[in-house]
Amino acid sequence: MAGGTFVDSGNAKQFDGKVTAFVLVTCFVAAMGGLLFGYDLGITGGVTSMEPFLIKFFPRVYKQMKDDTGHRNQYCKFDNELLTLFTSSLYIAALVASFFASATTRVLGRKSSMFMGGLFFLVGALLNGFAINIEMLIIGRILLGFGVGYCNQSVPVYLSEMAPANIRGALNIGFQMMITIGILVANLINYGTSKLENGWRISLGVGAVPAIMLCVGSLFLGDTPNSLIERGQREAAKTMLQKIRGIENVDEEFLDLVDACEAAKEVQHPWRNITQPKYRPQLTFCILIPFFQQLTGINVVMFYAPVLFKTLGFGSNASLMSSVITGGVNVVATFVSILTVDKFGRKILFLEGGIQMLICQIATGVMIAMKFGVSGEGSFSSGEANLLLFFICAFVAAFAWSWGPLGWLVPSEICSLEIRSAGQASNVAVNMLFTFAIAQIFLAMLCHLKFGLFFFFAAFVLIMTIFVALFLPETRNVQIEEMQKVWRSHWFWTNIVPDADDDRKPSKAQT
Ligand code: BGC
Predict the structure, then answer these.
(1) pTM listed for this prediction
(2) Pairing of strands 12-15, 6-9
(3) Looking at the DSSP assignment, which residues form a beta bridge with residue 8?
(4) Which of 173, 293, 337 to mutate to test the pocket of ligand 1 (most atoms within 8 A of CB)?
(5) Which residue, by CA, sits nearest to atom 4 of ligand 1?
(6) Atom of ligand 1 nearest to the CA of 294
(7) Ligand 1 centre distance from Cα of residue 148 (Å)
(8) Which are the contacts of 282, defined by CB distance < 8 A and separation ≥ 6?
(9) Mind giving me the DSSP string for 492-503?
(10) Measured in angstroms, how far is the CA atom of residue 420 from the centroid of ligand 1?
(11) What is the pLDDT along the chain (511 residues), one digit of tens a residue?
(12) Cα–Cα distances in Å, from 475 out to 106, 167, 210?
């Protein structure tokens, strides 16, 4: 087929172009934004269980923890709100930041948001690493949150816009891959620093490294053609499109983008816009996907793995090692989604992952119930502990090839240009809100719901799996600016999305 023409077979309109080294490198650099989020997710749980850190900043917590020994049951050992509030403050900051990031991403471009995200994170990590009082610690943490909010809002959008449709899933999942690598590296660093006197400073300060990598990297990145057109730089957009697709004639795709942009330009208030009936499906998914992602209970494992394993009777070192194991499984399993997401589609991963998580959660709940009952007294034999570790790893693997990456991919690809920034900001805000909520109440829930906590998450996994089966259309291989089509060919959404919102026909727009 001649360059620049397209085939339109059902939902899969295809433009010519190659997968260029340029687009791969660009996406690799941008995906590093995930490192910041992942590093923080992985580092915090370990640092807040380091004694010198607690003695310095949370002496009351430390004292209470020491006094408590032997007096409380296993489920309630680590229930402390002040400490979880410190941990969670980052997520509230990220939530707020995502709304500012939405405006930055739209008005100044995706690349500016990524750079700012890196910068906030850098200052935050330095303040934390050098903290001499609680104020420095908290302000640093808020800045880290701003960094996460900016990156998580802009990076997935950047990746989805840069990628050719047929490998958009794989490239976008580079972001989740970096999150998992960040978590693993953080676990390993904590493992090493937990034995040092001021190890927590290293753990917190090393966050500056990925931040510098992202700041420097984003200076060299170009912006996406979609964003360049959105900001009136048509020539630059066309050149970028030629570069990332590796062909001269990109006219059809370019005109599609220009059309998308014309529609977007009429929108003065993206937030008011996204609430219109014709965007109901996008808004629904940008809110429910992150909500469900967090209600899988993944962060109970990621965040509290050292505490959880300790609670379940693993020794102190063994518990850190176990979190390294789950961290490793998380990285490896993410590859599975990279390899399969564009071949078999998003839905099958959601469904398989959901069923596997459900089985693992029920098995974990039953094992803990049988051993600890409601009294919380008891411990596992090493065989039982290994079996439990197996179920937890299988749960992490299932998440890592389903709700983990798809929680960032799907919201970033289903929104048309005019609502993309707002849609992604909603995704980040809801994600952060529920990361916060779960971080905040998990230990109290464990204390009160006991093994029932695992059944609580299992119930949500069942609901979300059915929800995806019924309501999510497949978005594999659909051009990002052609996404509106998928709703109208879906049995349910076709009744909601008005016909008047017809696909944008290739216009006569000139360059
Ligand atoms: C989620 C995080 C989670 C991580 C685990 C991400 O997609 O948003 O909350 O900790 O995956 O890998």
Answers:
(1) 0.90
(2) antiparallel
(3) 13
(4) 293
(5) 404
(6) 9
(7) 12
(8) 274, 414, 415, 416, 419, 423
(9) TGGGTS-TTSPP
(10) 21
(11) 333 333 343 445 667 677 899 999 999 999 999 999 999 998 988 898 888 999 999 888 788 777 765 555 666 655 566 777 788 889 999 999 999 999 999 899 999 999 999 999 999 999 999 999 989 999 999 999 999 999 999 999 999 999 999 999 999 999 999 999 999 999 899 989 988 989 999 999 999 999 999 999 999 999 999 999 988 899 999 999 999 999 888 888 899 889 888 877 776 677 888 888 889 999 999 999 999 999 999 988 887 666 667 666 666 667 677 778 889 999 999 999 999 999 999 999 999 999 999 999 999 999 988 887 777 777 777 788 888 889 999 999 999 999 999 999 999 999 988 899 999 999 999 999 999 998 778 777 877 777 888 999 999 999 999 999 999 999 999 998 888 889 989 999 998 887 654 444 433 333 3
(12) 23, 12, 31
Please report, for residues 2, 16, 346, 396, the alpha-carbon distance to residue 165 in angstroms, rounded to integers and kept in the order given.
Answer: 18, 11, 13, 28
- 479, amino acid identity: Q
Residue nearest to atom 1 of ligand 1 (CA): 404
DSSP string, 411-439: HHHHS-HHHHHHHHHHHHHHHHHHHHHHH
Ligand 1 pocket (Cβ < 6 Å) reads 41, 176, 179-180, 183, 293, 298-299, 302, 330, 404, 407-408, 431, 435
Cα angle 324, 39, 100 (rounded to 5 degrees) comes to 150
Q: What are phi and psi of 49, to 5 degrees?
A: -110, 10
| Spacing, Cα 36 to ligand 1 middle (Å) | 12
Only one residue has tokens 């891959």, namely 177
User: What burial class does residue 38 get, using C-beta atoms within 10 Å of its C-beta: 0-12 exposed, 13-18 middle, 19+ buried?
Assistant: buried
The protein residue with its alpha carbon nearest to ligand 1, atom 9, reads 299
